[in-house]
UniProtKB/TrEMBL annotation:
Catalyzes the 2-thiolation of uridine at the wobble position (U34) of tRNA, leading to the formation of s(2)U34. The active site is at 87 (nucleophile), 183 (cysteine persulfide intermediate). The lineage of its organism: Bacteria, Bacillati, Bacillota, Clostridia, Eubacteriales. The keyword Transport does not apply. Gene3D superfamilies: Adenine nucleotide alpha hydrolases-like domains, HUPs, Translation factors. This is tRNA-specific 2-thiouridylase MnmA. GO terms for cellular component: cytoplasm. Pfam families: tRNA_Me_trans, tRNA_Me_trans_C, tRNA_Me_trans_M. InterPro entries: MnmA-like, MnmA-like_C, MnmA-like_central, MnmA-like_central_sf, Rossmann-like_a/b/a_fold. Its EC number is 2.8.1.13. Keywords: ATP-binding, Cytoplasm, Disulfide bond, Nucleotide-binding, RNA-binding, Transferase, tRNA processing, tRNA-binding. Belongs to the MnmA/TRMU family.
Amino acid sequence: MKQTVILGLSGGVDSAVAAALLRENYDVRCVWLDIGLGGGEDAAALAHRMGLPFQAVDIRERLEHFVCADFQREYLAGRTPLPCARCNPLVKFPALLEVAEAQGAQYVATGHYARVSPGPGGRVFLRKGMPPNDQSYMLSRLTQGYLHRILFPLGGYEKAQVRAMAEELELPVAHKPDSMEICFIPDGDYAAWLDRRGEAPPPGDFIDREGHILGRHKGIHHYTIGQGRGLGVSGPHRYFVSAIDPAANTVTLSDGSDLMAQRVLCARPNWIAVDTLEEPMAVTVRLRHSRTETPGTIRPLDAARVEVLLEEPARAPTPGQLAVFYQEDVVMGSAWIEGSDRTWN
């Protein structure tokens, strides 16, 4: 008798191929997570085509509480939030596991490009997926309790291989474009989304590092540290956002020479490959959702804070984003960026 797995089926090519791979060895049951923006009919039709049970689960209230409201608060505080990294441990996987518990399923699965593998002492490691499409960064807030019950069937494949499998299986989503935007802001205009929710910050002054006014900004929620486009300010050089001050409602611009940092302060670590960080550890570090990794050393300041010392300066470590720590392809853990030696002494 096959074990049961609850698969998060989005209606895209990744989760569809994940379903096809899993059904060879598991009793696959599909769950579409409803955020109130439609799309369930496509997912249901895909499950029906594959002969798999399907149900929709409404996660709107949970998404609002844990992700959307936080997204708004972070921008109002002059930070740059990372909603997917919050959604995975607080909304998506808890919702799938609730279905698993109700149906007596041992596992849940998604179409993420990452891997899990056994580690020492009963620990489960989170590992990178294939380099072109690795998604371990966004999964780095998952805990051991989740990782013991998660399957990532696409972890050993590249996206081109997944689309080829979808073609071979004659799945209608084989060439469906990837969704690159935040799921609850499908048009990608997060500033307009914040404006519609109300309480958006008013326009204010662009200033230089000496406090001279350079122009007017549209509201601090339109900007992030390191941004160089869409500023509408001309001068003797190209300008970049180097600081955001919610209290003064100002955005500081510079020539970008002050954006590099070699020391980063992080908070609220989530350790995956170890129980805790007790002494300095050599790692490579991702400071944003990209393939760029910088060698460095992490050391504990206390139970809630970690100092990251990079071998080479990194550009614009941004409060609200994640620092994810790796040893080769293993995610050691992650922590939220709070500041750097640009802003912290």
